[in-house]
What does this fold into?
Amino acid sequence: MEQSGKKVFILLIVCSCSLIFLSILLSNYWNVGLVQYKYWIEKNMELLRNKTEYLSNKQTQVGNIVLKNSNDKLGNSQVGAERKDTTENSKNNHYFPVNINISLARDEVKHIQENSEAKYIVYLCPGMCGGWGDRMTGITSTFMWSLVTKRKFVIQHHHPCALTKVYVSNHVNWSINLPKGLTQTQRYLIDNEQFSPKEIGTPNTHIEKRYSNDVIIFRNNIDWIKAFKNALYKDRLIELGFNPSNLSMDYIFPKLHNLLFKPQQELQKKLEDFLHSTKNKSLVCAQIRIGKNPTIPNDPTRNKPEFLPIIWDFLAQYNNSIKYKIFVTTDSENIRQSAKRLFPTTIADTEGVITHTDRSNQNQACQGMQKVALDFNILSHCDVLIISRSNFGEYAARLRNSAKELYGFTNGNIVKGFPRGEKNEYFNRTTKQFSKKQ
Ligand SMILES: Nc1nc2c(ncn2[C@@H]2O[C@H](COP(=O)(O)OP(=O)(O)O)[C@@H](O)[C@H]2O)c(=O)[nH]1
Ligand SMILES: [Mg+2]
It folds into this structure.
């Protein structure tokens, strides 16, 4: 009895040792497997979340701002763009303030780039492609086409100079030379509002079947995003991590902008320095687009000078240099100087001459692109933001990715939300409150 007890004891020890040895041996494989498995689960959970989100589709849309679950968000990005939350995010996101999930789209971009068979799509800007905001529109629309059709995306931006002067590739290597000997087609679509409904929105054959050349080159400044609501593209959009029922430029722009760009070194340094100088203060900003003026004489009129006092009244509420920094960016040197005179201790300015990316003389416009891109990026970090009806301001607000404290300067009024959105609440210069139209 005692003998057999000993045998069982020894057997138990041998078994436990073998088990320990086996688990040590397997742990390496297991670790690798676990990581893969976790990645696979995360990816599929993300896909599932997207599908569920798409099916439940509970957003309410107000004007062109999508409000979801009553939070102040543009599109349905994961988190709004409160500046206080962005320090960590900024570190990872090269100082773009949005905190959004682009992991699926990033993986898709990687697959496309690794595919040596992939065809190409090009955003071309040789001049006459509109200002910075127009370029943001054209680039985003063309990039969306490339994601949907699994083509490699290339930016050929020659006017007023290379885009790489201010932006460099983030997750998409868009600054590449095309291989020789490919078939190609080129379409000039500047200001062409008919193209996307006709070619993307309504047909029942996929664009890839109708545009089969190796290289498709687009010159475009129009928003094509909503046209991809066409059911033909639904599955691909879900695969990319986008909600097909919530497709708008508000929702897509910050995602695609982050996939494509990070500020070039010098620009990033300027942005960091500027943001550092506003540390522990609220950043209150206004983008004032006046149109034709001595700084940019060959532009159509946008706002009248007599509209300006309401902006000064609004900003005066924040004229306290202990708590606030006021940043005014504009297409007019006169307005820039007025802001400095009115708020001498609170104002923060960025150096450089004001230029129009498409209309100033080429040398100046190239020099000026750094200020244009810097001002644009600063706007996306503002705690309080007034924008004019201008692609420049509107795209900065989209990049900011929050409807919180966003105001539109329109027709001599300041309204809550985008200047082109539903105008429900107006700023009253006497009471300094927002109310229904007086
Ligand atoms: N720095 C700066 N430039 C501006 C501002 N508003 C307009 N611009 C210039 O004017 C151009 C306007 O073109 P775009 O961005 O397409 O906007 P839109 O024409 O106003 O819809 C930009 O490329 C800038 O060069 C501004 O507030 N600040
Ligand atoms: Mg324009």
Notes: Confidence is low (pLDDT under 50) at residues 27-36, 53-71, 76-95.
